[in-house]
């Protein structure tokens, strides 16, 4: 278990080791703590950036954005575990954008070693790389990093706060801190005298935190148990405040219609909109128009009533053209080699398999449409917006209105779904642009569902060319090439809002993350190569739940299933054999899902099983899908999931994330598709971009394992194996291999 | 011209045009933001409220056509005492992002007032119009069974 001093030393040692790489400058900066952004005031004492003691109780700061994944609850539990506060007495807030809340796990993800084979040195490297995120002050919720980021840091935050409270109490009582105990917000002396944390908070704030030893997991009170979520009651009584619910004095309501082709307007005629009652103004937004009105509904009606002649898109204006753009990337040399074991390109004796796969663009379709509220005054801008990246929103909005970032306050609310979409700053920038036209008037901008669909940053479409060789029942070679736009490179290169130029889209660099789900699988295959061809496209793409692995996992695991069948092997045993010498936790999840689903037992006619496996975000997940034929249509009847997250901090929440992540992947696999015509997304609402409903949702059985040596991600890992598990089950049922998503192009579902 | 309404037992007057959907009168005029906007075309169920106890999609209900007492999520509980549906939702820790859950609960409460012992098929049929992108369906189903049992036992 770590000590503050030990962590600092380790950081320094790794820093020294990396001096040859040219990062010596960073060493001091890394260990210097970021300033505490929380001010203490009357009745409110901040002990560090994560713990505030008030007269009413204890407030814990979770700078991780709550989009449904339960992060506020588990983040708070990490602090509370060491702080010794009663669960029912705590309040959790998101806190302001600040350097103290950088994501230390984010930059540790794209390092060039096999993630599943990480050892202590590499884990330290991963933590070290995370300090780069601190230097960049990137406060970001994404990449399933929250628990990896907070697991040690937040327990230390709780423990150091507890120790300064004990020291302050000890001074009052004339006792050494070691003689004192803490329980439920009280410091307790051996003679039974007690002081509450409130009693000693003011003195405690002036004490430098000592080195602390973290508690042994066997003594944990909260961690490892299924806690009631801190946001549950507000969410089921309608009290939870999403940014779409912000109400301010004198507020006006706005909606926008921006170019669905992501270029400018040739001309527009707003006379019909201006004639509508309840209209406060029509604003030329450059790439579109905005209407301010007495209520949101009028604003949404009015933006649709404006006659607009759009400029054409820079990208190919049909789905066929966009797919040709993707396919053309195979003609250029690969930008990324994610793995190259053995000689995958050589001729190997055995049976050769060749296959091509493709997946479409996908929308995020969060239940809460994009929205933000902005209030602009002469010297300040206030933004209220549910978002995954408050520091980027702060800088993008400051740039929009010509302010310094310090003049922009960002209030991050809970989100009605994120899935990566709310890492983008576009809606907040639009709200700021409108608000600047109406100084002193709070403007709530709400998009229609149609605007939300046509102005998404889509999950990229992708293609794969697969070559495999099997011989005598064994895998000999797998050689994989992907073509897709690079989410990570595009999102770094482009501005918050379209239009993007061709130059901004002509990206150079490599993108191992775009090969997730394929290059990083814990399999021993003698000849195993995975390469990526980056598609330079001006079509806006973005992060999505498990983005790279959401298609890479489908391509790779489906093809592994094809190889198993070609080799005449049981698909589950084939995967277990490949993982056996490579990664024991993966073997265990595959074995577990086999036992849970009674895999080897024969199924009756019209019923079949498929297995899918993907290692992603540090966690191996295996799923078995059972499909049943009902009157010519297919029902997804049951899914068994086994996942290894290293340390299961909240099993109830992890179960919810695994089933929810799986349903997210199944929805996309069955019916998810965004197509383009005239440069515009053809889908506009849930009637043509739907997801699985209650009646089509399968039953679930989940097992959580803890064999992996390090804590893994949770929020996204249920998604990648869902599509291949379903496709593999459909093959087992019908003998037909569908290599293009969505599956409803090839099969009928109930 | 105003429209008279009873919302959660309170007599209210709306100054909005009669063709304004009830959803936007509740949210933008009365500040009752628990009822959510999801699609605007009655295909996602996030805006579900009760009119005289019956589940209705408020995004497609002109305020001038409301002919009964309106109950929203803010009025589903009895003061601080949660309803049977809400109690079951807490017991099963249903909500993730929570955005659709007001509509889910209003739909479930309406189902249980019509059908005190719904089967799985009844639940699927009644709840199919309520979309959840987080995938909380298994817990919603379990919570409806729990709420039904609690209501039967009184």
Instruction: Outline the low-pLDDT stretches of chain A.
Output: 1-33
Regarding quaternary structure, what we see is: heterodimer
Mind summarizing the main beta sheet of chain B?
3 strands, antiparallel
Cα distance spanning the termini of chain B: 44 Å
- Biggest sheet: strand arrangement of chain A: 10-11-8-18-15-16-17
Number of DSSP strands of chain B? 5
Strand content of chain A: 15-25%
Secondary-structure-derived class of chain A: alpha+beta
CATH fold field value of the largest domain in chain B: Ubiquitin-like (UB roll)
Strand content of chain B: 5-15%
> Largest interface: which pair?
A-B, 67 and 62 residues
Anisotropy-based shape of chain B: globular
Spatial gap, N to C terminus of chain A: 51 Å
What is the CATH architecture descriptor of the largest domain in chain A?
A: 2-Layer Sandwich
Placed side by side, the strands forming the largest sheet of chain B appear as 4-3-5
Notes on the structure:
The complex is a heterodimer of chains A (750) and B (154). Chain A is of the alpha+beta class and 750 residues long. Chain A has three domains: 33-103 and 138-235, Aldehyde oxidase/xanthine dehydrogenase, molybdopterin binding domain (Aldehyde Oxidoreductase, domain 4); 243-312 and 370-446, Aldehyde oxidase/xanthine dehydrogenase, molybdopterin binding domain (Aldehyde Oxidoreductase, domain 4); 332-362 and 458-745, Aldehyde Oxidoreductase, domain 4, CATH 3.30.365.10. Chain B has helices spanning 22-29, 84-91, 101-114, 120-127, 137-153, and strands at 3-7, 10-14, 48-51, 54-57, 70-71. In chain B, a hairpin with a 2-residue loop joins strand 1 and strand 2 (10-14). In chain B, helix 2 packs across helix 5 (137-153). The N and C termini of chain B lie far apart (44 Å). Chains A and B meet through helix 7, helix 9 and helix 19 of A and helix 1, helix 2, helix 3, helix 4 and helix 5 of B.
